[in-house]
Amino acid sequence: MPDAEPTTPAASDRVKPTRTRRRSGTYAAADERRRRIVETAMGHFAERGYLNASMQKIAADVGISYAGLLHHFGNKRELLRTVLEVRESQAVELFYRRLDLEQPDLVQLFGLIAEHTRFNLTQPGLMQMYTLLSAEATAEDHPAHAYFAERYARIRALVGQAVALGVDSGKLRTDTDGDTIARELLAVADGFQIQWGLSDGAWDMSGAYRDYLDRLCRRLTEDGSGLDG
After folding, report:
1. Backbone phi, then psi, for 222, in 5-degree steps?
2. What dihedral angle (degrees, nearest 10) is formed by the CA atoms of 130, 159, 204, 128?
3. Which contacts (CB < 8 Å, 24+ apart) does range 81-89 have?
């Protein structure tokens, strides 16, 4: 900011410190309320799915009125979109920011997926949310249909890019097809999540999925190395 000569403001132009603190407190409270709404909505979507979740019940659990909820999120679709965006940004920050998206390494990517899966199991409600929403979203008129379609496309593109780089560098077998591998990864992950849910969390999905990724690595790499090298 450029330097300026000090001046004495008129009384009407002076900013009262108490008002500044009050505005900052108001914004902080609004941010905290939005955070609580999103977290509460995650729980409701996880337990009931999007279609059966109630905005009125979400508002009640947050401790605000239905009108207060609509002040922050104009409708249920907007709230769902925010929930999904927040969840994805958290995953990127926790795991995939370590991956070079310009030159993704397939073995490193598989390792991060295994870590992400293990972490997800510590948040079973969110796992259930994704399982329910992805099933509901197969209907074209579902508000999360585009999100899941784009998400699956992004994953296929990322895996395909990592496979192509691995083949070009000689690390992966030349007959490896990236799109086939990506679709297999997604199918196994989705199937495992359903089986884990039906086991009431008793089945070691994290270990089973890591073993699968390790076997897949050994099958694809030219030297037969797995996740641990």
Report:
1. -65, -35
2. 0
3. 81/143, 81/147, 82/38, 83/38, 83/41, 83/42, 83/45, 83/129, 84/133, 84/144, 84/147, 86/38, 87/42, 87/126, 87/130, 88/151
Contact yes or no for 121/205 (Cβ under 8 A): yes
Q: Judge whether 137 and 144 are in contact, CB under 8 Å.
A: yes
pTM for the model stands at 0.79
**Residue 88: what residue type?**
E
pLDDT digits (tens, 9 = 90+) for 111-166: 999 999 999 898 888 888 888 889 999 999 999 999 999 999 999 999 999 999 99
Q: Are 77 and 143 in contact (CB under 8 A)?
A: yes
**Can you list the domains of the chain with their CATH numbers?**
18-83 (1.10.10.60), 95-229 (no CATH)
3-class SS at 136? helix
| Closest to 132 in 3D by CA, of 38, 65, 124 | 124
Contact 111, 225 (CB under 8 A): no
